[in-house]
Amino acid sequence: MLKMGLVGLGSMGRGHLSVLEQLMADGVDIKLVALCDIDPKAFGKVDATLNLEGMEKADYDFSKYHLYSTVEDMLENEELDLVNVVVPTYEHSTVACKVMNKGIHCLSEKPMALSLAQCQLMIDTAKKNNVRLMIGQCLRFWGEWALLKEFFTTGKLGAPVGGFYYRNGGTPTKDWFLCREKGGGGLFDQHIHDVDMVNYLYGMPKAVSTVGKICIPGSGYDTCATNYIYDENYCIHTENIWVNYEGGFRHGFRADFEEGTVVFDGTKIRAYKKDYSEIVLPDVPQLGGHYPEIKYFVDIIQSGAANTINPPESSMDTIRIALAEMQSADLGGQIVEIK
Ligand SMILES: NC(=O)c1ccc[n+]([C@@H]2O[C@H](COP(=O)([O-])OP(=O)(O)OC[C@H]3O[C@@H](n4cnc5c(N)ncnc54)[C@H](O)[C@@H]3O)[C@@H](O)[C@H]2O)c1
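^ thats the input. predicted complex w/ nicotinamide-adenine-dinucleotide below
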């Protein structure tokens, strides 16, 4: 059994709490024992009406857990095997390294960090302490994206030709998200999911060209559009916007292959062959990304199996692409090579 802690009980941390309580109820061999947040209000009732992912509840029974206001205190007083780190992005690397330096496995939320140096430090710290590190790039575990990945690995519709990946939603309400130095803006925070998918599905691009607009002063790019350049000349395009006023959050994709097309409009995934006939797809479990992601990490820690889906080195490559996109946007869309 893995004894677990959770650091950061904001919107996403509460989402993790919901998932961990569900995993325990479903008999997964974990026991959440400790929660930590620097803000005492985090252990109270909150307004969860802005919750876009449908994971966070307004109220939890926090009396079941040992509560801490610093991560140092929690690590000093508990014997933990795995800690989920769900603090603001600019603190991911610092907090995750504190956890791993105590010999504890760590699941740290996306984006991995805002610089390659911080990403490398996280990987080196995991190796030095012989613990497992995984970054919460949850789309790799999300039903529709996991099913799409199968078309790439099986080659069922032939070689990839290209695709379009997008997400749009409203503006985050907490200040740190809108500060380029703290959250990386919409490009690093929200768009990173599609960057990670491009990396996961097609491999590393040679270069990128990104145009972006800063609508909120001081923010990273609140809207951005990227083309990815590969030797294979794939036609891949992504778009992200978090100053979108339709209400709600939307994401989806269209992936093109030599022998067909796979489309997800945010509600249902469909696949078509070259003769336009529809392929019958298996039912996709509607669990979101976090439940299968955390379950997978627990499984590979307990079995000792390799992380074949989401190794931290691949999350660092995703940051490498996002940094090139940021640089390209700063240069007005100029092509930036990825080193
Ligand atoms: N995987 C996803 O789909 C997804 C979705 C949303 C957010 N996220 C990521 O999750 C992270 C958290 O986002 P959020 O929306 O919950 O932010 P948030 O601001 O709502 O919550 C962060 C919480 O961390 C606490 N905190 C800050 N520093 C701390 C520290 N050193 N020790 C303990 N607690 C600390 C804050 O008090 C706050 O309660 C971000 O990196 C974000 O990008 C991931």
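Residues 85 and 96 are 6 Å apart (CA to CA).
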